[in-house]
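task queued by scheduler; priority normal; single chain, no ligands, no partner chains; default sampling; output format set to structure tokens
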Amino acid sequence: MRKLATLMLMVSGSAVHAAPDAVELAASLGLKVKGGQVINACDEAVTPMLTPVELGGAVGTAQLLVIPGGPNTVSCYGDNPGDMHLLMADGAGWRSVFNGGGFIMVLPDTRNDVHDFALGGPGFSFPVFQWVGVSFTAGGEISDHDLQALGELPTFP
């Protein structure tokens, strides 16, 4: 019984990569931090959000760091949720594999066993990003009609 408990601890310990604190992660990316908050593109101190995004394959569960807008959201980010950084576990730390603005919609299609995603926002078509082994890169687009035909998709943030 003791061997089983030790094995379970080893397996669970190696499979789990704890998410960092959102402010610490923002600082590690070189973003300006002040008083436990992050300074966004509008020069406002805001509380960042960190959300897990399951993408599978070599990326596994990525972390989506969103630096939102404050009082000037509309004039700064429009309809987008803010600056977004998608990070994957890399050894004991995290590394950025995508940054942009919009809503990440995880698609059923995969490249190299990692799910593609569309970057949503206003419009009739949306760019699709595909895993190329080290990061995500633009790999076409999907129409609003085709996106709707896929039904309910995991969408972040």
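post-processing summary
- The longest helix spans residues 2-15.
- Confidence is low (pLDDT under 50) at residues 1-15.
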